[in-house]
Amino acid sequence: MKNKPVSPDWIGVDWGTTHLRAWAMTKDGDCLAEVKSDRGMRGLAADEFETTLQDVIADWIHDRVVPVIICGMAGSRQGWVETHYASVPCPAVTAEMVFPKVSSPGISVSIIPGVMQKLPPDVMRGEETQIAGFLHLNPGFDGIVCLPGTHTKWVRISEGLISAFRTTMTGEIFDCLTRHTVLRHSTAGDGWDDDAFATAIGDAISRPERLATDLFSLRADSLLNATPPDVSRARLSGTLIGIELASVRSYWLGQSVTLIGAEQLCGLYAKALASQGVEVALSDGRKVTQAGLFAAFLSLKVPSA
User: Fold this and answer.
1) Would you say the C-alpha torsion 70, 74, 76, 79 has a positive or negative sign?
2) Which residues contact 23 (CB under 8 A, 6 or more apart)?
3) Using one digit for the tens of pLDDT, what is the confidence trace for 52-88?
4) How far is CA 154 from CA 72, 115, 166, in A?
5) Which residues have a Cβ under 8 Å from the Cβ of 109 and sit 6 or more positions away?
6) Which of 210, 239, 276, 287 is deepest in the core (most CB within 10 A)?
């Protein structure tokens, strides 16, 4: 995808496992142009990150050095340069970024570190930037933020800091079950049934210990009763999200929850939480990612040569 030729004050990059997005930004945090690429971390060797970045942002680099601020998996052990983890309680984004050496004369690169929690052990990389953006747009917020995704994060914010968080693998488990187990025969397609989803949520929260048997019942039900795949798919999703809610009850019980992420998935979490009487607010993932990168830009301290 060819970039719109602009002259940004800085560039923000969200570099994930499978894709990256780059934004040409002004010093006031406005977006001039955007480009997406499928050159995610998973498909790159360590020495390919700089050339990939050059290809993506070439039309934005002119006759001066432009700061490039990167969040996400480019800072992982398998990425460009492994960054450290800030330990909770901590700000979502600190000025202690990592600066990989680059041969390109037109850019300086900074990678945002992740966040870790020792007990119980947990890590995040990329979500901290979205949280920083949300807090930049909502100063003074105290409460719970949930970021649904492949690995969903439940984050407690207190006094402007990430104080604690938990990660669940619900999205990845759903993907594995529908692709690589016997349930793939019963959940094919992308159909949906809201009633089946809602019922499964309540059942799973009230009886999480029945997960293993409930999963196989989905297959048996489709064989014996010709249950449509859209019903089975929605029931599986509801079961897994319900189990997740049961495991992180302390993060939502008696709380209001802000959801950040893709609209469709956040919608499912909103329905699940609302069924438990939880007040839910939605925040746009793209918007808060840009705002988080902007917060990092404002705190940027480039090391001396």
Assistant:
1) negative
2) 11, 12, 13, 31, 32, 33, 34, 290, 293
3) 999 999 999 988 899 999 999 999 999 999 999 999 9
4) 17, 13, 5
5) 50, 53, 68, 70, 99, 100, 102
6) 239
Q: Are 170 and 241 in contact (CB under 8 A)?
A: yes
The predicted-structure confidence for 248-298, as pLDDT tens digits, reads as follows: 999 999 999 999 999 999 999 999 999 999 999 999 999 999 999 999 999
What pLDDT is recorded for position 300?
A: 80
- What does the alpha-carbon distance between residue 180 and residue 191 come to, in Å, rounded to a whole number? 19
Read off the pTM. 0.92
Rounded-to-integer distance, Cα 135 and Cα 118, Å: 23
Q: How far apart are CA 168 and CA 188, in angstroms?
A: 24
Helix, coil or strand: residue 14: strand
Collapsing DSSP to helix, strand or coil, 62 comes out as coil
Distances (CA, A) of 91 to 69, 96, 135, 269, 295: 17, 11, 10, 26, 11
HSE-up of residue 37 (Cα within 13 Å, Cβ side): 24
Q: Which domains does the chain have, with CATH numbers?
A: 1-123 (3.30.420.300), 168-285 (3.30.420.310)
Residue 15, classed as helix, strand or coil, is strand
DSSP character string of 64-89? S-EEEEEEEGGGSTTSSS---EEESS
**H or E segment to which residue 20 belongs:** strand 20-25
Give residue 303's pLDDT: 52
- Which of 161, 134, 159 is closest to 147 using CA atoms? 134
Torsion of CA 213, 218, 219, 220, to 10 degrees: 80
Contacting residues for 91 by C-beta, under 8 A, at least 6 apart: 132, 160, 161, 162
Integer Cα distance of 241 and 56 in angstroms? 36
